[in-house]
Design a protein that fits this description.
alpha+beta, Alpha-Beta Plaits, four-stranded antiparallel beta sheet, 4 strands, 29% helix
Length: 97
C-alpha cells in the first residue's frame, strides 16, 4: 500500500444541531478504529492548539484513499483534506520493505 500524509480540517456547518455533531463524532471514532485495524490509518496527530488533524494513511492509490477510505468517514462531508503522496527517503531509518 502507498502511504499518504493527510491534513484534515473539519468545519461544522452553521446551524447543525449539537446532537448531530455528537452523533457524527462518535461514529467517526468508531470508523477510525476500523480503518486503523485494516491498516489504512497508521497514525493521527492534532497540532497543539489547533482543531485539525494530520495523519499517516495508507491505500492502494490516492483515488482509493479519497473514495474508499476518507470517503467513508462520517465527518467527510464537513472535511477539507490536503493529501501528500509519500515515498521512502533513502536515509529513512524505519523498517525496510
Amino acid at each position: 500500500m502507498q502511504e499518504f500524509l493527510v491534513r484534515i480540517t473539519t468545519t461544522v456547518p452553521d446551524g447543525t444541531a449539537p446532537a448531530e455533531v455528537d452523533r457524527r463524532r462518535a461514529a467517526e471514532a468508531v470508523r477510525a478504529r476500523e480503518l486503523a485495524a485494516t491498516g489504512h490509518l497508521g497514525r493521527l496527530w492534532r497540532p497543539v492548539g489547533e482543531l485539525r488533524s494530520i495523519g499517516l494513511w495508507r491505500a492502494d492509490t490516492e483515488a482509493a484513499l479519497r473514495s474508499d477510505v476518507l470517503g467513508t468517514l462520517p465527518l467527510h462531508d464537513w472535511m477539507t483534506v490536503e493529501i501528500t503522496v509519500l515515498e521512502p527517503h533513502p536515509n529513512d531509518p524505519g523498517p525496510k520493505a
